Here is the input.
Amino acid sequence: MRNIPLVIATMFIAVPCLRAQTAKEPVKVTDMLKIATVGDIHLGAYGGEAVFTVTTIEPDTAGKPGKWDYKYVTQLWLASTTGSGVIGQLTTAKEGASQPALRPEGHDIAFVRTVDGKPQIFILSLDGGEAIQLTRFRYGASSPRWSPDGKEILFSARIGMRDLIKDTILNPGRQLPAWPDEMPGIASDASLRPSVSKPNPDGSLDEIRAYLDMDATDKKAKVVTKLNLQDEMEVNPDMSFTHWFSVRAEPGSSGVLNAPVAVTHGFYNFNSADYTPNGKSLILVAHIDSTVDPDRALESEIYLADRDGGHLKMLLGTKDKVFGNPRISPDGATFAYTESSTSFVTIPQLKTAKLVDPRETRLISFDRAPQSLTWSSDSRYLYFTAASNGGQPLYRMNAADGKVEILSSYDNGILSFDVKGNHVLFARTKPTDPSELYIGDATMGSISMLSHFNTDWLANRELSSPEKHVFRNNSGDTVEYWVMKPVGYSAGKRYPLLLDIHGGPSAMWGPGEASMWHEFQFFCGHGYGVIYCNPRGSGGYGLDFLRANVKDWGTGPTSDVLTALDKAVAEGWADTSRLVVSGGSYAGYLTAWIVGHDHRFKAACAQRGVYDLATFFGEGNAWRLVPNYFGGYPWEPEVKALLQHESPITYVNNITTPLIIFHGENDRRTGFVEGEMLYRSLKVLGRPVEYVRHPGATHELTRSGDNRQRIDQMLRTYEFFARYVGQ
Here is the structure.
């Protein structure tokens, strides 16, 4: 590790230190604002230096009327694996910094920062000086990748259909897509070809069409012809494409920025791209089929191309298959990848293949969904994480025999990591700490904590620890659940108990899941016991368990979560007259289903839920869950009957439990009409119900949404429960 010059060292912010011990108190709702999250870890070529991100929540006073608004800020930090630990903060600009990448054999960091509303790439030298802007690309620049020789940077940009058609560099002949246009009654290319007529609402048909096209361009109308019409926030009629570009890594003379060069072309989405270890080629993921509208295609293939994008050659691809996440071993001999069917109810298989002959493949025996594939420096091992049994352990596969070993515990989660030499640097969440930076050896046999971003405020908080239990359900499957007793628990006393349910339905909760860390601790700190489980249909338990709720979203999963509740109640400390239930997304669905079939709960909270499956098919961008889980479409008689049977709105007349319903006003993943329908139905029936809409909020409200709204949702839930179960 070279010495860091004083000019940079002086800008570092010291890592928080421990305060003197004081009397501990429960976790507060505003403690959410104190959580610092470590991520996006990158080790240098020899494993000595490392750059990583830290995301914090800070006051947002710009244009805000009061003092209660907060924003997320991500900055770059530097660490050493040779004994210095976390050295300090590298970036401080209010725009933040993300997506870091270390130059091979060098001391420069490429990262992304927003400029004039678009992401752009900057370079920061660890030898000192200010960050230098490398791109000012009109489409933005993200996901930087250094070439092995350190002379170029590969990056991605998202380009709209109309821009791609007009761009004479990316599309020199101004070609149009070859697939059939989906605008009814219009010639195959007429809807995309720019009009040559003058807009005139009183003119000829061509002039009227030019006028209507002008209205669409000026956002006075949204004309939708594509299948996937909703994005996360709104109805979006526009199609766009991800393409990759290369740019010289050294800024031009006199401050002139180098012009990016396109390495991918066409009306296709190139989902990922990277250099091969020798730097001569690129490995890419895309679905290239000029006859199929990419809005309808679910497949993807793996390709190899020259460094400039030429001579594109498919390595792996076939109909109804998704190939992705290719990672080439440092010696260039082997690449690992994932393969799955186009069905959503599936687990990607981990495979390896020889780069010279990709037909020579090996299926790795591993019944979980691998993520973050990373080779060791000597190409002997492939490291990866996977959600499993309530945790996010780190695994490694031996390249020689394909055997997989688990390196960390189910009781925590590895959020990000990198491997170089004998070092594994990683961010970890665990029940006693939401996020910190750690270092271990190659087998994770020796682990040291490097950072203390959350240590200071946690030192004065009393936490509840989850206790794991298992049972066998009525289908013979083993179900895991966790019980958290209230902070300050006293034997012989009875406490209210919250049944908290996860969404997905293929999500998974456990001690290694970071998203619920604060909410669980908040309720435990306010005198509640909390119980959560992974019912049939959850991820992290293999393919059979994942598919155990196909055509059964209600009855089977309800049996599992209520069995877990019954077993927790049997411990003797829960007050059965003060039971409450809560869940979001699919768990909003299940909460509504439960209170339509069971009346043991004093109050319930359904967040961002799906309540009528036929309506969800039309208004949610996750609409493919309907055909994948229920075998067809709402107009097919058998499927129509099944969707009605499985929809909570069908049983609304049975709901008497006081219910608070939450939804983000811009949540297009599940849609929000169903929430209004459930609320209005209960209101007409005269049932105790309250409906809360959060303006501008998406489906990510409680995870990464507006922090004031996150606090609002949690406090409203707590206050609503308190009306029925007391303090």
The chain is about 15% helix and 30% strand. The longest helix spans residues 707-725.
